[in-house]
Structure prediction request, 412 residues.
Amino acid sequence: MRRSLVQALQSRALDRYVLDHASKDRPILGICLGMQLLTNSSREDGYTSGLGLIPGDVMPIGGETSWHIGWNTVENVKGDPLFSLTADQAFYFNHSYIYQGPPEFQVCETRATHPFASAIRRNKIVGVQFHPEKSQTAGRLLFRHLLNGLSNG
Amino acid sequence: MVKKRLVGVITVKDGWAVQSLAYTRYLPVGRPECLAENLERWGADEILVMCIDRTRKGFGPDLALLKRLSSLGLSTPLTFGGGIHTLEQASAVIQSGAERLCVDSALRADNQEIRLMAELLGAQALIGAMPLHREGQQLWWYDYLMKESSLLRDTHLSLFSERLISEALVIDWRHEGQRNGFDMDLVTEFPFKEVPLITFGGLSEPAQLTSLLSLPNVSAVAVGNFLNYSEHAVQNLKGQLIKTPLRPAVFKSSMNPAI
Prediction:
């Protein structure tokens, strides 16, 4: 999936568009695979390079279960105001790979078999491993808060 | 930790949502889109749309229906099944708006296509439907196309044990549509305990759902027509399951008022 997405981005020159957007300090939000593309690389479909906007890499979940499916809570471990609304709310996850990178970019954490970064951030570039667009009211409220915060911050 | 899910099932035949009774009788319910909107409004954790006549008629997945559902802008995860046999069809289903897909007869037909689906889309996108019944201590796997059952063997479950499919949809097909009919032994006797199970068929009562949700290998309970009898059926049912590891019912008024 990742390899075909990277190829689709490159064939449409959208990778350059996103990088140009980031260089102008404009906000970017990546969701699920979109979040994973913001990083340096991924081991999905072999090794594929990412956009390199947030340091770190994407690795298989591993452990007893190879995937993380369903509704889970998101802990705002850095107290990031963008994610102040996530407390006590569950969001929908559906993935087999996770972010691994410097702790300074890991703003939210989720506990599955092991804890992992469910949201990463570098200035105005934000990635969420879960799907706000599939998380009903909690997702809509988070979207509104994220968009307001990134646009006005 | 990840919550267990209450899945709302929409069974579709000839383009219409139906109440299916033991895979033999079908009663019309209405437009699938209307049922999906209800499940969304009531906060179902997932919606599973199963088009039961696509393979039998030699059709592929009903992408037109899936696109109509996607155009509703649902914010509830959607799983789509029926008529999916090839990687191309599976990819089209995901690209048309489903988060996950469910295969049944493809499990028997061509393991290589399932392997390709898992490779491209990821195991987390795949659910395998297993209509089962029990005779004595043995489980039998029902082939709805041939209308015959075969003894369930470990070899039938290799795609699950290889983790190419993330969850099994265990269907008590004989008790489908029968209130409180689900045979718990289908779960307790299921050969591979590490395979997460979604249970379906004759699930209606809170006590029954509570028992299933207490089992570690049950990741979700799926309810079909019993959710169509009353307004706010999902919230009402979840309200009776508050001591289970299910995601709690969500009401707009319970969200943070500061936002």
Remarks:
- Chain B has a mean pLDDT of 94.
- DSSP finds nine helices and twelve strands in chain B.
- Chain B has one domain: 5-245.
- The interface with chain A takes residues 1-5, 40, 43, 45, 75-77, 99-100, 120-125, 163, 166-167, 194, 196, 219-220, 247, 250, 252, 255-256, 259 of chain B (CB under 8 Å).
